[in-house]
Amino acid sequence: MNGGKRPIQDGDYLLLEHINPNQAGSITGKTLAIERLDEAGDTQYLLRTVQKSDAGEYVLKATNPEYDDIVVTPELSEQFRTFARLRGVVDPLEMMIGQELMREDIPELFGETFNPGNWQSGHVFLKDANAHVLLVTLNKQGKAEDHRYIDHWIDENTFHWQSQHATTPDSKRGWELINHKTLRHFIHLFVRDNKLRAGKAAPFTYYGPVEYQRHEGSAPMSVVLKLMQPWPTDRQHES
């Protein structure tokens, strides 16, 4: 279903609320998921916005102009079964918040292919996704002294991140982080406690998108970031 100001694309994840005729409530102006049997007896699934005509008939309107509106006659109503109300389109990244991912699996979330040369860095910028990906290991044991950045949780929703030593507020990466809202760039935070777990590379926990709050210093910058989706109080952070 393409079209309209907020088109739904093939492959989008949809949040649907199951309904039945006894508890559907008012459906006028709502977008519904409808099961339909065509003339050949095959099942079709439609997303249509319900309107009422001047004659009092229900009209199923498609936002895609390639599809005609459907006037629900008594005969057609027997072919339709309304089973859900559309609540919204779900960003696949939202479903990954709180999940653990290996470094090489993270690029796929953004439609990218893993490249060791790019993804061994702690700050990766993805041009096509307009995304800054921060990969943080809290325990810096084994790191060279000049790579022991100071990263820690300030509270359950606020994170202190220290940039690479070459990053200043006026450098390209520093300026982009400070102005990410204006630039419509997103910052995504992945954190792990240690580099290794049981002798093997440890996964990162995805904490979702974060917003720049403030910074201090230069080369490196100390940046305070806030989770855009509050972290559940019953779950602990990487410490």
What structural keywords apply?
5 helices; mainly beta; PUA domain-like; 6-stranded antiparallel beta sheet; 2 domains; 8-stranded mixed beta sheet; 239 residues; Umud Fragment, subunit A; single chain
Quick overview of this protein structure:
The chain contains 5 helices and 16 strands.
Description of the structure:
InterPro entries: DUF3427. This is DUF3427 domain-containing protein. Pfam families: DUF3427. It comes from Nitrosomonas halophila. Residues 98-233 form the DUF3427 domain. This protein has helices spanning 74-77, 106-109, 116-119, 172-178, 180-183, and strands at 13-18, 31-37, 43-52, 58-61, 70-71, 80-90, 100-101, 123-126, 131-137, 152-155, 158-162, 186-192, 196-197, 200-201, 204-216, 222-227. It folds into 2 domains: 13-90, Umud Fragment, subunit A (Ribbon), CATH 2.10.109; 92-227, PUA domain-like (Roll), CATH 2.30.280. The protein is 10% helix and 38% strand. It is mainly β and 239 residues long. The strands form 3 sheets. Strands 7, 8, 9, 10, 11, 12, 15 and 16 form an 8-stranded mixed β-sheet that branches. The protein has 5 helices and 16 strands. The longest helix has 7 residues, at 172-178.
Please give the number of β-strands: 16
- The residue fraction in helices comes out at under 10%
Describe the sheet with the most strands.
8 strands, mixed
Name of the CATH first level of the largest domain: Mainly Beta
List the helices and strands in order: EEEEEHEEHHEEEEHHEEEEE
The mean pLDDT is 90
Parts with pLDDT < 50 across at least 5 consecutive residues: none
> Could you say which structural class the secondary elements and strand pairing correspond to?
mainly beta
Specify Rg, calculated over alpha carbons: 24 Å
CATH topology term of the largest domain: PUA domain-like
Separate helix tally: 5
Distance between the termini: 44 Å
Fraction in beta strands: 35-45%
Cα shape: elongated
Number of structural units classed as domains: 2
**CATH architecture descriptor name of the largest domain:** Roll
